[in-house]
Amino acid sequence: MSVAPVTMKVPASTANLGPGFDSLGLAFNLYLTLHITPAETWSFEHRSDILAGLPNDESHLVYQVAKQTADTYGATLPPLHIVMESEIPLARGLGSSAAAIAAGIEIADRYANLQLSKEEKLKIGNRFEGHPDNIGASIFGGMVAGVSFNEEAEIVHLPAPEMDLVVIIPPYELKTEDARRVLPDSFTRTQAVEASAVANVLLAALSVKNYSLAGQMMEKDLFHEPYRTVLIKEFPDARKLTKEAGAYATVISGAGPTILTFAPFGKGEKIAGIFRQAFQHCDIQQLQIEKHGVQYV
Prior knowledge:
297 residues, Ribosomal Protein S5, domain 2, Alpha-Beta Plaits, 4-stranded antiparallel beta sheet, globular
């Protein structure tokens, strides 16, 4: 059992990439950082405005995940004092809950000496999240494609696409449950076939670095974006502006409301400038793909 103080960084993530609903994930260079020190009792301290209002006791999500993970393996967790900082805004479609869950699993693994593989960590995370896209990206880094079978999950770690990334982060939250509430309960066979084929072609295009075709497929989602667009007022204008600027695609990040643009290398700065003029009420950031998952620094 390790009792040394450590600092852990967990990357943010996006899910779906358009048609890869609840399956495709991509890690970003925004981080949840945890400074972890052995203590007499469990406690949390938050040093980011983003985290204001979160509990500082054992009701904390990170503790709950760590405790349940340790309990699953019949292990005991020592008490810890955890100081948290975050660059990942909550309820914005950037994987803030998945990052916290990944942190909890990693804490259990390290301090209860579980010696879990990444695949085992993914399966635990999938049980909390219900889908492997965000949690897979936070654990593995880079791009992942996964599938959930109730409490089981499988994932493939894929080469990351070579693109510039720009996000529009609106000032309002959009809870995942609210974004799911607008989705249909079922699709016809014809709709399901077309939607699945679009996702297949997206992955195939990414695999051969045909980013123009990949961008076309990203914007042809049928599973969720047609229904969620009404919840994100900036989305239609953002997609129009980026097309005019030569971007590959603009999609909803996860459940939203963050909007994610994929662009050829070198065009991200121009697109970010366009966004800053058009959406002055939003936070505009250029991001990079984080090729590593959970790290100790």
